[in-house]
């Protein structure tokens, strides 16, 4: 087990507690309205999937992290949800496979931005399209790039920023989380370095996040074979404007 992967999974629920509530409710409501098969890509520790399973929503999920899914399964057991191994699996979004088609596939939590290669972005969107029913939908969200914020962090920094202290799932112990970031404006990649302080143990972990512009993503959707799409500026499906901090996409086969 890779320590930084396991510690991310350990603090994931605590890190996200109270954050992104409008996003979580948006995806849960869209699944409720779908009245068909739903697939969550990058399901994490099950913050969306588990409540929907309790409501008897027909939802499946996968994640690339074995550690995240291990915690999801522990939470499912505590909730009395049976056969969770038939519901979730370890897969990646580029090459996932199912022998069924879905009415709704969604990627929450800006997870699509972890694909930093354009060929992986296109292959993921094609794979999603191939797993959707003919009237199926794709939903996903990611941040709208802010030029001034990007340009403020183009140089390497030695300064660590304290995100907060977060409880571990296993024993409630606190982990102090810090980060520093450098933006590469050529590749459109945020290079983020995380530091975890767990008692006397200090661990570093690197993360790459690729920002995507509006016109760029429309071209990705078109290249992958989607026929039409809507872009919203928030999780209430309000209009996208120059002041919108989030892009919420709804694409159709």
UniProtKB/TrEMBL annotation:
| Pfam families (alphabetical) | Methyltransf_25
* InterPro entries, per the entry: Methyltransf_25, SAM-dependent_MTases_sf
Q: Does the keyword Transferase apply?
A: yes
Q: Name one GO molecular function term.
A: transferase activity
List residues of the Methyltransferase domain.
Answer: 39-136
Which keywords does this chain's UniProt record carry?
Answer: Transferase
Q: Which Gene3D superfamilies match?
A: S-adenosyl-L-methionine-dependent methyltransferases, Vaccinia Virus protein VP39
SUPFAM superfamilies per record: S-adenosyl-L-methionine-dependent methyltransferases
Q: What is this protein called?
A: Methyltransferase domain-containing protein
Source organism per entry reads candidate division WOR-3 bacterium
